[in-house]
Amino acid sequence: WVEQDPMEILNSVYECVEKTCEKMNELNINIANIRAIGVTNQRETTVVWDKTTGEPLYNAIVWLDLRTQSTVERLLKRIPGKNKTFSKFKTGLPLSTYFSAVKLRWLLDNVDEIKQAVEEQRAMFGTIDSWLIWSLTGGKNGGIHCTDVTNASRTMLFNIHSLEWDPDLCKFFDIPMEILPNVRSSSEIYGLMVCFPVFESGALTGVPISGCLGDQHAALVGQMCFQDGQAKNTYGTGCFLLCNTGQKTVFSEHGLITTIAYKMGKDKPAFYALEGSVAIAGAVVRWLRDNLGIAETSEEVENLAAEVGTSYGCYFVPAFSGLYAPYWEPSARGIICGLTQFTNKNHIAFAALEAVCFQTREV
């Protein structure tokens, strides 16, 4: 189970805004020069909140979370031939614990407060971008409930061709469409920042929020991969290789997913990408530090590996959350093999770093 407190995420954004504005004042930069605000976020992470109180109804279920494995298995039984890729040509995605629809299904099945809020038409669903934009534009006092095409394309409820929520998929997952956010482009004015009690200065009140991209799409844009065939790979908790395929959807026969790369304005076309998602990259370094305790800091892991310069035949498959691309095997679990009496923590550190390379190469 991997969850986060949505209020903590929101407060960290408030704090970030406050500290940034303070810093700019110290540097004698006029904050009136800030013309627009953009939002980027971890994708797939699912929040349901109450539109009358503005409070989350449960912790956010994070993309890496595996509690939905039984939900996925139950849904698979309803698909002819248990075909995991049944919605691939609509959504670009396989049925997996990774995407938001199954997390939302779990919440509707298991959290009474959410069930009740849906019945009483108080519930709103969103990924982190929607939760932030709604809260920052006024929350229960007129907040804007929206998402952008990139985040919508990670829910398994969105048709990546028509760029609309898909009624058939909502029916399949039994998700009421009225709780879903409005889908907008990645670059348009969604709403204006509202002054909050937590802002002592209300520094950015009235500044438009006018950009929204899921983190991996934002990295693709940030690296200026605007040409068909240009790609970026980023290494964080997980590891994500995205390749721009232009204005056409390309469907992989080898376990990559098809996603919307960006849509730069209401009347602009959507661009697409092929993505290879690796669940565990940097997280394996954190695991060595926090769970095995072979290093005090993440940096130390690199030094341990450098001391031996080889894994000496030791291999580490960090399938802590199942395997994502190209296998989509949720029941896979981590394994360290090739151990001999000679193997020590340095070799394991080396094998862990090498695992990031192997997974990237495979994608």
What's the layout of helices and strands?
Blueprint: E1 3-4, H1 6-26, E2 37-41, E3 46-50, E4 60-61, H2 69-76, H3 88-91, H4 100-110, H5 112-119, E5 123-127, H6 128-136, E6 146-148, H7 149-152, E7 158-159, E8 164-165, H8 167-173, E9 182-184, E10 191-192, E11 208-214, H9 215-222, E12 231-235, E13 239-246, E14 257-262, E15 271-278, H10 282-292, H11 298-308, E16 315-317, E17 335-337, H12 345-362
Helix pairs in contact: 1-6, 10-12, 11-12
Enzyme class: transferase
Keywords: ATP-binding, Glycerol metabolism, Kinase, Nucleotide-binding, Transferase
Organism: Nicator chloris
Q: Which structural class best describes the helix and strand composition?
A: alpha+beta
By CATH, the superfamily of the largest domain comes out as ATPase, nucleotide binding domain
Coarse shape = globular
How far apart the termini lie comes to: 26 Å
Q: Biggest β-sheet: count, sense, barrel?
A: 4 strands, antiparallel
Mean pLDDT: 95
Task: Describe the structure in your own words.
By secondary structure, this protein is an alpha+beta fold. The chain folds into 2 domains: 3-213, ATPase, nucleotide binding domain (Nucleotidyltransferase, domain 5); 282-362, Nucleotidyltransferase, domain 5, CATH 3.30.420.40. It is built from 12 helices and 17 strands. The chain has helices at 6-26, 69-76, 88-91, 100-110, 112-119, 128-136, 149-152, 167-173, 215-222, 282-292, 298-308, 345-362, and strands at 3-4, 37-41, 46-50, 60-61, 123-127, 146-148, 158-159, 164-165, 182-184, 191-192, 208-214, 231-235, 239-246, 257-262, 271-278, 315-317, 335-337. The protein has a 4-stranded antiparallel beta sheet. A 3-stranded mixed beta sheet has the order 2-11-10. Helix 1 packs across helix 6, helix 10 (282-292) runs antiparallel to helix 12 and helix 11 crosses helix 12 (345-362). The longest helix has 21 residues, at 6-26. The two termini are 26 Å apart. The relative contact order is 0.12.
